[in-house]
Amino acid sequence: MVLSDPNTSSVGEFNASAAQDNGMIVDAMIVDVSSATFMAEVMEASEHQPVIVDFWAPWCGPCKQLMPALEKCVTEAGGAVKLAKVNIDENQAIAGQLRVQSVPTVYAFYKGQPVDGFGGAQPESEVRNFVSRLVEMSGGASANVSELLELAEEAIGQKDFAQAAGLFSQVLEIQPESEIAMAGLIRCLTGTGEFEDARAMIGAMTDEMQASDAVQKSVKALDVAERAAASAGQLAEFEAALAANPDDPAAMFNMAEAKFGAGLNDDAITMLLELVRRDRSWNDDAARLKLLEIFDALGPTAPEVVAGRRQLSALLFS
Fold this sequence. Notes:
Largest sheet: 5 strands, mixed
Number of helices: 16
C-alpha cells in the first residue's frame, strides 16, 4: 500500500495534524451510554447504522483488554458502525433487561434488533472480523466512503488540506485501493507545496492506478502548480513588464500565472477573466484554458472557482 512507502512520510504528518479535526467523526461513533440515553444512542441510532454495545465493568480485567480493540476497530471503520459502552455497575437495569450475566458481553444492534454478539475477551483479529461483518451487512462502508469523500472535497475547497488528507486516509482504511482517495492525497500535498512528496506518491503507485482518471487529473493539477510556483519567483519581473505595457496580453497572462503560483488565486482568476473579455481567442484560447487548469487544481468547491466559473460562463455565452 502506498501509505507505507518511506517516501510518503508527509502523509503520516498530515494524518497526525488532522487527528484533532477528524476526532469529531470518531467521537460521535464511540459513546458512553446510560439508562437515560440507551434508547436514543442505541435503538434509534441502529436504524441508520449498526451499533455495538459493550457491557463492561471497572473491576473487570478482560473488559480492559477488549475495549481498546473494540475502539480501534470501530475507529478503523471510519463511522460505518457505532460503539456504545455500558458500565453495568451504573446501569444495572439495562444489563438485566438484556440478560447480561457476565462481562464483557457484546451485542450488535441493527434496525432496532440484536443481530450478532459474543461474550468474553476476543483477540483483535476476531473483533475486526466482527466489525467487518456488521459493516458488510449494513452496506455502511460504501455509504460512509461517499460521505467522507464529500467532506474531504469541502475541506479542500476551504484549503484545509490537513483535514482533507485525514478524511482521504480514512477512506483508504475502508477501501485501500481507492483511486479517488489516493488522488485526493496528491492534491493535498500539491496544495501545501510539497511537490516532491506528491511525485514520490505517484511513483509508488501501480501503473493501473496511475492511469486512472482521478490520478491523472491530480497529476495535471500538480503540473500546473509546479509551473505556477516557478513563475512566482518572477512576480516582480512580470509586474514591471505589465506596468510598462498594460495592454500586452502576454504580460498579463504571465502575471496571472505568477500570482496563482504565489497563492493569489482571486487576482490570477480576475486577470485571466479580463484577458478572455478582451480577446477570448488570444494565443489559441490560452486564457480560458489556463482558467480551466486553475479551476481543476483548486477543486470544484473552492469559492473562487465557483465564482470564476460563473463569470467565465457569462463571458463566453454573452
